[in-house]
């Protein structure tokens, strides 16, 4: 891969999905995209770039390229300190705030294979506060492959490495071969959709949310792509709704219009209320 080919491919991937492949990752990009070149019988990365731009199959191929460049690492009950703050400190606020309508909408943005979305539904069940409520947890991702896994809801030991035995017992059905399936009552609260977080048009189809988890997704983006995603997330949040990021992420220098909320156990972000009321 020449430097010029690397730049062309990198820019193409970046403008599609916000993932920035740094200069020192040229070798990694080359290694990961090489199987695509072979599969398409193309002579070099210049031909591959032209394929991505002009071929009738370009959309599907761009998905395959992005697939090979993204990390889908995730597991149930990831970042337990944050989840505890969420359940102990935000659940009571959400219960109070939405108590009249008894409706709650959560979005796991960049949900990978679904563990995060199911975790949120399990935490809501575990609290018993929302038993009779209309609850929806919506998981979205740019990768159709991980979404297929999410919808199947079957997992192996690695996905369960941080799941307490009593939760395993309550929310999963054992399957042969050391695998489990998420119980139907949890699945009934969770749905999944394909969505590119940089695509404003498709994000308009996402319902208004009370809480958005967008964890370990924007770490692969540059500041400009982060700003675009945050504008979309902010637009989809109800006034007073919360945004939770991964533990290594923050909104510093992004100029995003969120309030920082100091919980005892975590820092979270909130979309400001409309002046003079609840905003709904
Ligand atoms: C490392 S996983 C994080 C999964 C989960 N949120 C967690 O923290 O465990 C990052 C996910 O973000 C998705 N992703 C990357 N760019 C995206 C984009 N532009 N739109 C939607 N999803 C994206 C990837 O496909 C991947 O599944």
Q: What would you note in describing this structure?
A:
By secondary structure, the chain is of the alpha/beta class. The chain has 2 domains: 3-69, Chemotaxis receptor methyltransferase CheR, N-terminal domain (Chemotaxis Receptor Methyltransferase Cher, domain 1, Orthogonal Bundle); 80-270, Vaccinia Virus protein VP39 (Rossmann fold, 3-Layer(aba) Sandwich). The protein is built from 11 helices and 10 strands. The chain has helices at residues 3-17, 26-39, 45-54, 58-69, 80-98, 115-127, 144-152, 165-171, 184-187, 200-203, 223-236, and strands at residues 103-109, 134-141, 154-155, 172-175, 179-182, 190-194, 209-214, 237-245, 259-262, 267-270. It has a 7-stranded mixed beta sheet. A hairpin with a 3-residue loop joins strand 4 (172-175) and strand 5. Helix 1 runs parallel beside helix 3 (45-54). The mean pLDDT is 94.
How would the global form be characterised? globular
What's the total helix number? 11
The CATH superfamily of the largest domain is known as: Vaccinia Virus protein VP39
Helix content: 40-55%
The helix/strand series, from N terminus to C terminus, equals HHHHHEHEHEHEEHEHEHEEE
Biggest β-sheet: strands ordered side by side in the sheet? 6-2-1-7-8-10-9
- Which small compounds were modeled alongside the protein? S-adenosylmethionine
Radius of gyration: 20 Å
Count of individual domains: 2
Describe the sheet with the most strands. 7 strands, mixed
């Amino acid at each position: 891969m020449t430097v010029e080919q690397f730049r062309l491919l990198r820019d193409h991937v970046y403008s599609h999905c916000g993932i920035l492949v740094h200069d020192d990752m040229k070798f990694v990009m080359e290694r990961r995209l090489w199987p695509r070149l072979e599969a398409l019988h193309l002579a070099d990365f210049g031909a591959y770039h032209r394929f991505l731009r002009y071929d009738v199959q370009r959309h599907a191929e761009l998905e395959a390229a992005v697939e090979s460049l993204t990390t889908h690492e995730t597991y149930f009950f990831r970042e337990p300190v944050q989840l505890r703050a969420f359940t102990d400190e935000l659940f009571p606020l959400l219960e109070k705030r939405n108590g009249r309508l008894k409706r709650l909408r959560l979005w796991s943005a960049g949900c990978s294979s679904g563990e995060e979305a199911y975790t949120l539904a399990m935490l809501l069940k575990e609290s018993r506060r929302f038993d009779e409520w209309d609850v929806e947890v919506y998981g979205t991702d740019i990768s159709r492959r991980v979404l297929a896994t999410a919808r199947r809801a079957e997992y192996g030991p690695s996905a369960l490495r941080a799941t307490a035995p009593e939760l395993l017992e309550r929310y999963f059905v054992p399957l042969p071969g050391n695998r489990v399936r998420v119980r139907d009552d949890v699945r009934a609260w969770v749905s999944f959709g394909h969505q590119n977080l940089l695509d404003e048009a498709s994000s308009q189809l996402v319902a208004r949310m009370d809480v958005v988890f967008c964890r370990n997704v924007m770490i692969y983006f540059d500041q400009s792509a982060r700003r675009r995603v945050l504008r979309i997330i902010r637009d989809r949040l109800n006034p007073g709704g919360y945004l939770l990021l991964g533990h290594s992420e923050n909104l510093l220098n992004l100029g995003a219009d969120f309030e920082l909320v100091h919980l005892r156990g975590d820092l979270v972000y909130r979309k400001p209320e409309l002046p003079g009321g609840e905003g709904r």
